[in-house]
Structures are given as C-alpha cells and as structure tokens.
Amino acid sequence: MNVAVMKTKSEQTLSLQAAERIPTLPGDKDVRRAREAALAVFEAAGLPHRRIEEWKYTDLRALLKDAASVTPQRSSDVDSKLFDLTGTKAATYVFVDGRLITKPKDHTIAGVTVASFSDEVSKNPALLAIELPETVDAGARSVIALNSALASDGAVITIAAGAAPERPIHLVFIASGAVAVRNVIVAGADSESTVVETHVSPTGAARQENAVSDVTLARGATLHHVVRTEAHEGSAALAQYLVRVCAGAHYKPFQLTSGGGLSRQQLTLTFAEQHASLDFSAVALARGAGHVDTTLVVDHAVPHCTSRELFKTVLDDRARGIFQGKVIVAPNAQKTDGKQMAQALMLSPDAEFDSKPELEIYADDVVCGHGTTSAELDPDLLFYCESRGIPEVEARALLIESFVGEAVEKIENEALRDALMSYATAWLRSAA
Amino acid sequence: MLEIKNLHVKLADEDRVILKGLSLKVPKGEVHAIMGPNGSGKSTLAYVLAGRDGYEVTEGDIHWNGESILEMPPDERAAKGVFLAFQYPMEIPGVAGLTFLRTATNALRKKRGEPELTTPAFMKLVKEKGDKLNIDIEMLKRPVNVGFSGGEKKRSEILQMALLEPTLCVLDETDSGLDIDALRIVSDGVNALRSKDRAFLVITHYQRLLNHIVPDKVHVLADGKIQKSGGKELALELEKAGYAGFTGKAA
C-alpha cells in the first residue's frame, strides 16, 4: 500500500524557509538551480523516519518537532572558551551561524589552502554536487539534499601532495538557529594532516545544524579528522561524513559527542583502492533526555584494506545511545581485516543503548569481527578504589574517565588528545 | 587497637549467616594470624573490616582505636588507617598504575590533613618503595594490575600498602598463588612495615606464610567464630592435625 505521507510541521517550515533562503545563498544561477533541485529531492522524501531501517532509532520526523528559525548572522562576539584548543597551535577558522567570520591571523601554512565554501561555490558551481555512493541510505540522502539546498558556508581545505603540516586546521561552527554547512577536504597524495571540527552552540540556543563533510584521501595520504560536537538540551546536530579512501591511505577519525540534546554522526566510507585503512574511535556522552547516534557504513569494495573501530558511550538519566556499524565486504575484497567494538556504560537504569553491528561479508578469505557490551560501573572496582581512600564520587569519575580514555588515547597528537580529554572530563564532571 | 566484639554477619541478599559471634583483639605493634578452613568466614571478615557492600552486620561491633568503624564508607576507613590487601586484586583497564597510586595517596593525605605530594616527590617515593618489592616503574605505567601475574598483583598490593601507610593492615590470603621467591619478596615487604604503631591481621589457609611473617598470635576461625587462640606454635599444630578438630570433618 502506498500512502502519501502527511508532511510534518517541521518539514513544512523547512520547505518554506528553504524557498525563501535559496535566492539569498551564495552561487550563480546554476548553483541556484541545483539548490532548487536538491530541495525538491528533500521535499519528496521528507525527514528520515523510523520506517527507514537506518533511522529506526533516530526518527527525525518524531524528534524534530519544530524546525528552528534561521538566525540572522550574529556579531563576531563569540566566546572562545567554547572551542579553545590551547596548546595545539591550531589555525582556527570560526563560522558563526553559517558564515566564516574569523580566519587565523597567521593563516599561511605551507602546503595547506583553506578557502570558504561560499567563495568557492560562487566560482565553481560543481562544488555543490556530491556524488553519493550506493551505501548512503535514503534518509541520509534526504538530509544531504537539504544541506545542498541550504549550505551557506563551510571550509574547502586542500592539502598539497606530500605536505605534512604540523599545525592542525581547526574549523569552528557556532550556531544559534537553523544552519547548513558544507566542508570539502582533499588530502593530497602522501600528505599527512590534522583537521579538527568543533560544532557548538551558545547555551539555551535552539540550534539545528546540518553539516556535511565531503572528504577525499588521495593515494598514501593520512588524515587525522577530529570532531567535537556538543548538542545541549533543545539543540540538534546532524552530521554526514562522506569519505573516499584511495590506495595506501589512512583515515583516522575521532569523534567526541556530548550533550542532552539530539545528535547523529553518520560516516560513510568507501575503500576505493587497496591497502588503505580506517582507524575510527569515538566517544558519546549523554544525559538528561539526550539522544546520541553514531552510525557508520564502511564499504570494503576492494581487497587488502583494514578497518578498526572503537566506540565508547556513557549514558546517564534517560539518555539514549545508538550505535549502528555496518561493514560490507565485497565478493572480491579478499584479505579484508575488520574489527569493531562498541561499549556502553550505563549510569542510570533509565538509560537505553541500542547497538546494531552488521557485517555483510561476501568474500571468503577475510578476518572480521565485532563486539558490543553494555554494563554498569563495576561495584567491585568501585570498592577497590574506595578501599584505597578514593571517595566514591572521585572513584566513579576515575572509572568513567578511564572507560572514555581508551578511545581518546587513539588521538595521536598529544596536545589535541589532552584538549579533547579535558573537554570529556569537564563534561563528565559538570553537574547534570 | 583493633577490637571486634561479638560480630554477627549475614549476606545482605541471602539468609546465610557467616560470622556468628566473632570476638578478637589485635593491639598495635602485633601481628595476628587468622587461620581456618575454606568457608569458615575468613574473607568475609576481611571484607567487613574494609567496608564492602553485600554484608549485613546483625550484631556486635568493630572498633579501631576506640572508635566504631561500622558506619564508615570504605574511603573513610582507609583514612583511619584501614587497608585490605586483596586475595584477588582488581584489574582496572584504562587507569595507569601511577595515576591510581597518586590519586589514592593524595586522597588519603588530604583526608588526614597532610599536604598533597608533588609529582617529583611522589615519583621518588614510588621508586624507592617499588625497588624493595622488585616493581619497575614501567610496570606501573600500565593499567592497574592488567596482565599482571599472580605474584605481580600481590607485590603491587604490598606496594600500595607501603605507599598508603595504613595502621591496620589486613592481608587476605596474600600467599595464595605465590611461588617461593614471590612469597619471600612479599613477606619481606610486609615485615619491613611492622612497627609498634601498626597492627596486622594476616588471614591464611596455610602455615607456610607464617614462617616468613611470624605472628604474635594465631586464631583459628571455624564456623563463624574464633575456636582457639594461641602462639605461633598453634599454626604448626594445625599444619599437622588439620582443621578437623574444629569443624568435625576433614578440611
């Protein structure tokens, strides 16, 4: 039975907003036409809902009851404490409500170019289009289409072949309302670089962010891609990472997501050529009525690639954590080596963790495995710590931080690792 | 002085009664051994002294230095000087040994009104105490007890004891799983801590450990009560005759 689905209130608002905004967004008439076409794709599909398998646990039709309004761009008066990465010497680009407002004073880094998406898309309309692999689900396609319709800015980063900049490139996205940002990252052959994204909003702001990062690693490239996202109560952060990895390249993402609001971090990665690897670790922290969703699709389309994933989720109060990890091994992708682990620490009996690892293996000479656990803090370990004089509150914090620390440890840049661990610790120790 | 008065303990979740009127006094400066067959309540006594959840004291009291410790949480007891060397020390993945030791040392110093140790001072102390127990600093950079052998775990317990400077040391089957060499290292570590200000309660199943840690008194615990007390020679008698006389059956 095919029934036309009624549009939800937020879908209607999103359509109206988009129709109004598109003429004001960067790009020539070709871009405008492409945006309108993308909007039509979104309008046909609507927000992802529970009948789309990949969005079963994150039904945006139900969760996004109201579409946030578009906030006019605020002043450059932003609180740098929201995104500080002291000690990392990062070159920081700050985007407020979907517009680049500050560049680093010393922004020339050898081998690195960072341009604004709004400038680039005006010069090159083709930049708006993203080629989506088949592994992107229908819900994500709709969200990405909405992003194409509305993307106002973002960063276009090019790392030159062979370049190995020491300083991380730091993109900061602060928003108070509805915003769509688009990043394009191209890591040149044999380069090694670190790109950090920080997605935050002022406390209390009804921010709804739709971020898409289009990432390509050329042969032999190594990209450390560190993302920290805060979605506090009443705000939502949706992110799609589309990653294509060429021969011998190594993609090393780390994600720290925290909050009492709604977040969905979805990474779709394709091994396009052999001998490449993915080393992904992530930490999700939620309390209150927080909803943190980490979804991953790895397509081992070719032989001899390695994927490693470690996900740590800490849930308190009524928070809900979702982990979906699909690994597809194509019939010819022999010698694939894939291992996945998702662990949740439940601090409250009312919290919920839904874990859905999926292995689709069509080749016969592969090593693939996955594991998932969900547990409370071990009372025996707590007693052991307390018997050594460590007060219960501190003992709990020590054990939770050690749980999270195992994933944060994967960040190779020491200053960056310390900074991310500090954010995780501060969040864990902040009052509920 | 440790004074246990007519202690009755049952499991919190079950009706099973484990200690049935245990009384015991251990003055400061003395080492007392508790020996007994399996299931006599030895480990329960150790856990109840340290304040572990899951036990219910239905009668009696435990005084340490004239003060009841029964209502205190484990960390408060530790601050009062109580230390339990575990029969099975816990592994804590993700917490480096040094971090754990420093957190515990400074938490106790804070509670005892002493200044926290600086990192260099702490490292010097760990190295000094660790050397005596054959514990390399590298071993302490690894997560607490993870991947340690039985002997390494027991040595790490004694190192904690040496660093935390307790005044009431309860050793729960510290000899289990130790070979002769490890037994000597651990015993030497314990003996080095013997002093007139410290009381020891050494719980063991075998007499072997008491050749190395020579007790002032030996108590036989069976069926939840102290059945007999005597000098160190009592341990030798038990080694010969077994616990049969106290339980009515061969142990």
Describe this protein's structure.
The complex is a heterodimer of chains A (432) and B (251). Chain A has 432 residues and is an alpha/beta fold. Chain A has helices at residues 9-21, 29-45, 60-63, 117-123, 138-150, 379-387, 392-408, 414-429; strands spanning 91-96, 99-102, 112-116, 155-159, 169-174, 178-187, 192-200, 208-217, 222-230, 236-245, 250-259, 262-271, 277-286, 291-300, 306-315, 320-329, 337-346, 352-361, 367-375. Chain A has one domain (9-376). In chain A, a hairpin with a 2-residue loop joins β1 (91-96) and β2 (99-102). In chain A, α2 (29-45) packs antiparallel against α5, α6 (379-387) crosses α7 and α7 (392-408) packs antiparallel against α8. Chain B is an alpha/beta fold and 251 residues long. Chain B has one domain (2-247): P-loop containing nucleotide triphosphate hydrolases (Rossmann fold). In chain B, 38% of the residues lie in helices and 28% in strands. The model of chain B has no long low-confidence stretch (mean pLDDT 92). The chains are: A alpha/beta (432), B alpha/beta (251).
Largest sheet report of chain A: 10 strands, mixed
The multimeric state of the shown protein is heterodimer
Number of domains of chain B: 1
Run of helices and strands of chain B: EEEHEEHEEHHHEHEHEHEEHH
List the chains of the largest interface with their residue counts: A-B, 22 and 29 residues
Please give the order of strands in the largest beta sheet of chain A: 2-1-5-7-9-11-13-15-17-19
Low-confidence stretches of chain B: none
Biggest pleated-sheet summary of chain B? 6 strands, mixed
CATH top level label of chain B? Alpha Beta
Mean pLDDT of chain A: 93
Poorly predicted residue ranges of chain A: none
Number of helices of chain A: 8
Class inferred from helices and paired strands of chain A: alpha/beta
